[in-house]
Amino acid sequence: MRWRVLAVWCAGVVLAGVSAVVGCRVLDTDAVTPVPQLLAFLPWLLVPAGAGVAVALVARWWTGVVWGVVALGLVAWFLRPYGDGGEPGGRAVAEVRVLTSNVEFGWATGALIPVVRREQPDIVFVEECEYGCQAAVRKELGGEYPYRAAVAGEGSVGSVILSRFRLTAAEGVAGSMGMPGAVADVAGHPVRLQLAHPKPPLPEQVPLWKRELGRLRDFAAGARKDGGPLVLAGDFNASQDHAAFRRILDTGLRDAARLAGAAREPSWPSRTTPVFGTQIDHVLVSEEFSASRARFLRLDGTDHRALVVHLTLHQP
What we know:
Blueprint: H1 2-26, H2 35-39, H3 46-58, H4 62-77, E1 91-102, H5 109-119, E2 123-127, H6 131-141, E3 147-151, E4 159-163, E5 167-170, E6 181-186, E7 189-196, H7 206-226, E8 230-235, H8 243-249, E9 254-255, H9 256-259, E10 281-285, E11 289-297, E12 306-315
Parallel strand pairs: 1-2, 7-8
Antiparallel strand pairs: 1-12, 2-4, 3-4, 5-6, 6-7, 8-10, 9-10, 11-12
Helix pairs in contact: 1-3, 1-4, 3-4, 5-6, 7-8
């Protein structure tokens, strides 16, 4: 029957698309456009895969049913949180609250300031904090956060780290957008801080996105080799379903949201979260930290939700 041929064709097209993306996840590669963009929303592939199975059932296309069930199983398998989730050893020496927020070209600066005052984080990472944003946070929050490390710039280039703890200068990571670094004195313990903000994987700049995530991976590997506590936080423009991001985790860093039980809570785009989205804003920590809580907060003026995590620093 003609309708059955059409149903089989439609189910096959849908399942082929899902399989191509899931296959890249299995092969641990981000491949090329449109794979990186679709991998960001990998959990949502359950919807087209399920639809493909349903259509195949109606059409009595048993090969398609088996194909779709396998695709569904693989997507479900990769929903598991990635990376180490163990607790650190040693005694607790300090509680540290960290907030990271992409204020989208500075547009959400006015919304961020009262949130910082309410949440009282010890360290604040602000991405896309251009000249006006940096002037505003210095004026409004300078008394509470006297220490800062910044890269000045227009639009998405500017970024800043604010801290209650004394900071000493440290080299940041090179990128198209500012990624400053510093060392914080936390209860007498030096903690390396690094802001992350690589380019997003737009179709024309996927190679650049991969290179900048690779630089963050190299930085993390070097920092872990040197030893000592590390917090790497910001807008990574990548989720745990991207191979380039998993390679950063493979250096031994752990995602604080994952440790606190929020591994799949979406942070972008904020206008559709938490119903639909992906988690691309992260606080990654070294093995000296545990995380007890992670919350994603909506801010007016930005398409990212801010992330607040409650950390505990342990001394081995």
